[in-house]
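Entry 14. Structure prediction run on the chain below.
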Amino acid sequence: MSAIISIVPIVLLFVLMLGFKMAGHKSALITLIVTILLALFVAPSMDMIPEKYAAATTGGLVWWSFVEGVLKAVFPILIIILMAIYSYNILVESKQIEVIKDQFTSFTNDKGVLVLMLVWGFGGLLEGMAGFGTAVAIPAAILIGLGFKPMFSALVALIGNTVATGFGAVGVPVTTLCNEVAPGGAASAEAICETSAFAVIQLSPLFILLPFIILMLTDRKAIIKNIVLALWVGIISVVVQYICARYLGAETPAIIGSVAAIVAIIIYEKVFGKKKQTPDAINSATKHYTMGETFRAWSVYLFILIFILVSGALCPPVNQFLKSHLVSEVPLPVIGTTFKFGWISNAGLMLFLGATIGGMIQGLSLGRLMKVLARTVVNLSKTVITIISLISLASVMNYCGMIAAIAAGLVAITGPLYPIFAPLVGAIGTFVTGSDTSSNILFAKLQANVAGQLGMTGDGTFFGVNGSETNWLVAANTTGATGGKMISPQSIAIATASCDMQGKDGEIMLKAIPYAVMYIILGGLMVYFGC
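Output returned:
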């Protein structure tokens, strides 16, 4: 019964968005209110509140969990979304988006190759470096600029932003996953490498299937070409990501794997591209630009890339300095946590600096850039409501025991078949929180505990790879979490903002659900048959 009550907010969100076709911000706000009411009046009577909060008043617990949700939503998620769209709006304002458009279409006039390059290659690179919605917002916005339809742009960006999210933001999700189950909260490098490799193995069929789906959505007639290209890019992606995961850890698979995918796409186009197509969606006229013109057009993304790489884990001294200076701390009584936000270490600042410097190189004055920023903020007002409501309800559900109740109910029902459903637990976490990292924080220990209950405590062989049985099941959480990312209301809110489709959240979710269900089922089968 606790699990049934706890799943009400998730079901309600689906019903409002899909059944009543209610706008995302209204659906999220109503669901937040219902979640708070359940937490205040139902959770205590059903003993759902975790024991460590038993002495706290329910009102205080709900209030401070709500406050934490608001803080997490603004710092840094909303800031990153805002800056990602700001960076694109700069390109529109300076008209340099036309140069980028011409360069993409001069590279190829094959729509499939172009879309795959943007959402799988470039999008994966953005996810690996920054995460937090940038890999949906920026590729989708560029596709719109290239003339593709908003619904198509949103859907392929969401589908493309999946497998890379497990290693997004320089490996934070998997590193967090391993730390949650490690003694003392600090996982060994060996455990991180093994779990990372297991996640790639569990996701391996999707590395081929997802590019094929993206290509088929773009051009249903070119079936043979789509199969060949999907196999080529998918195999290159999975091999490179596995090698990086197994021997380097969680920080580099998405970054290096996406670069390898981009190279693979370029090689394919050079060898097989015959430029016979003339897509309706794009202007296939070829123009040539000098190095200076190319630098100016790409300066926004070039400087974003530089700032993210220099400030991230790839440059430890700088990363450590930024993380240890100008950090605000907000104590949160009752729930017993402290919210921390680094003003100079967050990805949002790196996006802002890169975009602003790039915009000035493109000829925009600082005053004009600030007007672009102000206009971006105003246009995202509904997205702000959506994101704050969703993160807050996730926080309330977590601290009031709802998410744990859902997971426990699933374990009780499935028994020995649990490995099939292990990715579903991770997907539920991402659907509710919008974050692979948050899902791993919520359910990592649950997955490890279930592994113990099922007797998966020794070493085993998984599709020919030796390793810990516990780590195999723990890795399933991030496998499912990457699939849940596709239909997370937060990701969809980012897509609607990027594609200027305010109020169309339900329509986008309805389009994405079949692919997400396929994703989670396939992940579950890989986990089960690998045991």
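The mean pLDDT is 86.
Filed with the rest of this week's runs.
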